[in-house]
Amino acid sequence: MSLLSVRDLTVKFAMRDETVTALNRISFSLERGERLGVVGESGAGKSITGFALMNLLSRPGYIAGGQIRFGDQDIVALPEPQMRAIRGNRMAMIFQDPMVTLNPVLTIGQQMVETLQAHRKLSASEARHIAVLKLREVYIPSPEERLDQYPHELSGGMRQRIVIAIALLLDPELIIADEPTTALDVTIQADIMELLLELCQSNNVGLILITHDLGVVSQMTERTLVMYAGRIIETGRTREIINDPQHPYTQGLINALPQQTPPGERLKQIPGNMPALTSQPPGCAFSPRCAFVMDQCRKVRAEMIYYGQTGVACHEVARQNAEPARELSE
Amino acid sequence: MKDLSHESHPLLDVVDLEKRFELDRGFLETIKFRGGRVVREKREVHAVNNVSLSVAQGEALCVVGESGCGKSTVAQLVAGLIAPSGGQIHYGGQRIDNLSRHAMMPLRKKMQMIFQNPYASLNPRMTIKQALEEPVKYHNPSLSRSEVHDKVAEVMRSVGIDPSWSARYPHEFSGGQRQRIAIARALTVDPEFIIADEPISALDVSIQAQVLNLMLEAKEDRGLTYLFITHDLSVVEHFGTRVAVLYLGTVCELADTRTLFDAPKHPYTKALLSAVPQLKDDSPNHIRLKGEIPTPINLPQGCPFESRCAFANGRCAQERPAPIMQPDGSQVACHAVEEGRLDA
Amino acid sequence: MSSLDAPQTTPSRWSRLWESNIGYSFRRNPVAVVSLLVFLVIAIAAILSPLIAPFDPYDPAQIDIMNSEYPPIWVSGSDPQFIFGTDDQGRDLWSTILYGTRLSLMIGLCAVLLQAFLGISIGLIAGYIGGRLDSLLMRLADIQLSFSTLMVAIIFLAVTQAMFGSETFNRYAVYFLIAVIGVAEWPQYARTVRATVLAEKKKEYVHSARVLGFGPMRIMVRHILPNSLSPIFVISTVQVANAIISEASLSFLGLGMPPSQPSLGSLISSGFDYIFSGSWWITAIPGIVLVVLVLVINLLGDWMRDVLNPKLYKG
Fold this sequence. Notes:
The complex is a heterotrimer of chains A (330), B (344) and C (315). With 330 residues, chain A is an alpha/beta fold. Chain A is 34% helix and 22% strand. Chain A has 13 helices and twelve strands. In chain A, the strands form two sheets. Chain A has an eight-stranded mixed beta sheet, with helices on both faces. A four-stranded antiparallel beta sheet of chain A has the order 2-1-4-5, covered by helices on one side. In chain B, 33% of the residues lie in helices and 23% in strands. Chain B has helices at residues 26-30, 71-78, 101-110, 128-139, 145-158, 175-187, 205-222, 233-239, 257-262, 267-275, 314-318, 335-339; strands at residues 10-22, 31-34, 37-40, 44-56, 60-64, 86-91, 94-95, 111-114, 193-197, 225-230, 242-247, 250-256, 324-325, 331-332. In chain B, the strands form three sheets. Chain B has an eight-stranded mixed beta sheet, with helices on both faces. Chain C has 15 helices and no strands. Classes of the chains: A alpha/beta (330), B alpha/beta (344), C mainly alpha (315). Chain A binds chain B through residues 41-42, 155, 157-158, 185-191, 193-194, 197, 212-216, 218-219, 239, 242-243, 252-254, 256-259, 261, 263-264, 266-271, 273-274, and chain B through 66-67, 174, 176-177, 204-210, 212-213, 216-217, 231, 233-235, 237-239, 257-258, 271-272, 274-280, 282, 284, 286, 288-289, 292-293.
C-alpha cells in the first residue's frame, strides 16, 4: 500500500467576490521511502499542495474535495486533534525560511524537547538525549552546546540543519520540504541537499520536495510532478522528465535555462506569464503561451493520459501518440 | 593592481575599492567592558576590501559570490549610492567617487541601475506613465510634452510593455512585467552603462529567460555595457564576458567567462562551480567546504578563505594573497595557486 | 493628453476607492459606516449652522436675558421656540451648540493641519537626512513630548492672556488656540513620519530615484511622502479628536474661547456654574455632542488603523 495517496484533491480560496480554485483535482501517490519532486513557478499551487497535505490550510483557503490517504487514514476528514497527532509525528514539514519554523525566543533545546514531549511520554533528560542524537545525525558540531543557543546565534545553514533535525525528531514517515534551500547559498544548499538525501535514504523516509529549481529536483528525486496554474500537467520519472520532457510547458521550462543555450545567444523563453488563478482561460491553462496550440486546446482542457510511466495532460502529445493509449484518470 | 588584461580604455575602472560599515554608532555604543576595564572599541564590517575591477566598453562583467560577500555593496558603491571608505572609482577617465550630486548629474544619464526586487523598485503610488516620464523630464527639461510622450512610448515598446497600459499602477503588473518596466525606466535616459544588482533572482524561471533576453537585446541594440551582480553561475556563464568571484569582500579570481568555467583555479571558485545542481548529472559530488562563511567583522589577517580552504597552510593564515596574473589571462589571489600546491 | 485623461480618471478614482480593499472593508464594517454617517451629520450641520440655526448667538439683538435658563422642550416649563432650552445669557442652546461645534471642529482641524505641516516636514528631514540633524530634531521632539500638551498650553495661554489683556486675547483666542495646540503636538507626526521614512528610504525605488540623479527635495516630497500617507491618515484622525478635546479643556479652564464666542468647551464651562441650580442641560447637551463627536472620530481612526496596517493584510 502506498504511504500517501492523493485523489482529486481540490483546494479553493474564498475571496471577496468569488471563489478561486487554487488546486484543481490533483492526484498522485508516494511509496514508502520514495522521493517526489513538485516543480512549478510561483502561483502554480505547489506550496498550497504542501499545506493541504499537512491539513494546515487556513481561511480563506479550504479543501473543497478529494481524498488524501496517509497510511490507512483519510486526512481530509480527520478531526483536528487526531490530525495533530500525525502532524509533526508521522509527517513533518520543512519551510524555506528556518526562522519561520524556529521560535526566536526559545533555545534550540527547549524547542526540540517541547516537540518530543508533545508526542511522546519522555522525561526532559531523555528528550534532551534524543535531541543530541538527532543533532549529531545532521552533522552539527558540539550538539550539547547548540541546545542552549538561540536561533539567531546560528548561521543560516546551521539553522536549516536544526530544522531538519527537528523534523526528524519523531522519526516521521514523510517529510514535506517546501523550498528548503532557496534562502541559502549554493555551497550550503549543496550540503543541505546531500544531507536530506542521505537521511531520507538511510531512514526510509518519504520526501516531497517542493521547489522551482529543476537542478535540485534532478539530483534529489526519483519522480516529479510538474504543476501549472493549480493542476498537474506532467508526471513521471525525474530522469525521463528532465531528459525527454513531453508537455510543452515542461519543455519550455527546461529549455529556458541558461545552460541549455550557448553563451551570448538568446534564451529560448516562454512568452507571456502564467495566468492568475482568477482569470483562467477556458481549455488548457497553458494554451495562451504554447507554441503547439490547437483550436481544441483553447476549448477543452486536456485530461492526464499515461504513456508508460509518464503522464501528460496535453492534446498535442495525445495527438502525436495517436496509437491506442491507456486512459487512467477518471 | 590595475587590471591590464584589456588594451582598450576601460569605461569603468575601480581601484582598491574599500567599504567599511561601522557597527557601533555614536559614542555610547563604542564603550565596552572588556576584562575588567572599560575600553572604547569600534567594530566595523569590512564589506569590500581592496577590490580592483575594470569594465571595457561593450563588456558584461559579472560579479558572483554568496550572500554577504559584498557584491551588492560593490554595485551600490559604483552607482554612487554609498560613499567608499577608500579607493577610487573612475568612469570614462573621470574620477567619480568624490563628485557632488550636481557634478554627477551628467553622469547619471550615462550610468543606470536595475534592482533585484521589482516589487520594491517602482514607486507604488506612481502610475507607469509618471514613473517613466519623470526621469525624461528631469534630465531633458527642454523636451515638449509630446516628445516626452513619444520617448516613453518608444522605450516601453522596446521592453515589450504595451504603451496603452501606462495609466496603470505597478501592483497591477506581474513580477516579470515590473522588472521590464524598471528596465524601461533605466533606459529612458539613454544610458551607456548599466549596473544590474541581481536583476532576475526574484523572478520565476520562465520569466528569468525573458528578462535576460531583454537585457541581451538592449546590450546589442543600444551598445550597453553591464556590471552584472548575481549569485547564479548559470546566468554568469550565459551572460558574462568576464567574471569576478568575490569572497568576503575580496576578489579571489577574475577571468574571462570561458576560462573561468573551463579551468577554475581558486579553490573557492572550484567549490562554487561544483556546488551548482546540474540538470543532467544525478551524482552529486561537490567539493565540501569546511564550516561556513565567517562574519566580515574583524577580518582574518591572511587569506579570507583560509578558514574553509583544504589547501591552506601557515602562509595563508599570515599573509593576504595578491591577485597574480596567470598564463591564460586570469587573475587569481591564492598562495596555493602561486606555489603550485593545488596540483600536487 | 492629460487634459483628455482627466474626466475619465476622476470618476474612476472614486469607484476604484470603493472597489479597493479599503472600500470593501468599510462597507463590511457597520461601526465605521455609522461613525462616518454621524460625523458627516455633525460636520455638515456645523458648517451649515448659519442656515440651520433658528437664532444667531453672535447677534446681541436676538438675545434676550429674560429668556435665560429655559429647559429643553421635553421638560416642563419650557418655551417651544427653544428645542434644547437656553443658556444663562438667554441664547438658544441648539443654535449655540451648532455654532460652537463649528468653532470646535475648525480649531481642531486647523490645529491638526499645523501639527501635520510642522511634524511631516521635520519628520521627513530628520528621517531622510539622518545623522546629527536627525538626533537633534528627535531630542527636541522628546523634550516637547515630556511636557504634557495641556501644561504647555495653559502656561502659554495664561502668559498671553496676562500680556495682551483679556480683551485682545479674546479677539484673537481662535488663533492662539490653533497655534498652541498645533505647536504642542508636532512630535506625534514627526516621530511617525520619521519611522516610515526610515523604512521607505531603504526600499529600492528610493535608490532608483537617487541613481536617476533626483534631488533630496524631489525624493522626499514626490517619492517618500506619498508612500508614508497611511500612518499619517491614522494619526490625523486621533489627533483631530485630541485637538478638539484639548480645545474644550482649555476653554473649560477659561483659557480658550470667551463666552461671547462659545465653542463646545466654553459652553460646557459656562453651564457648569448652573449645574447645581438645576439647569443641567447647559452643560449636559453640549457635553453629549462633544463626547459623540470625539467618539466617532476615534472609531473611524480605529477602523482606519486596522485597514491601513500592512501587517494585517499582508501577513
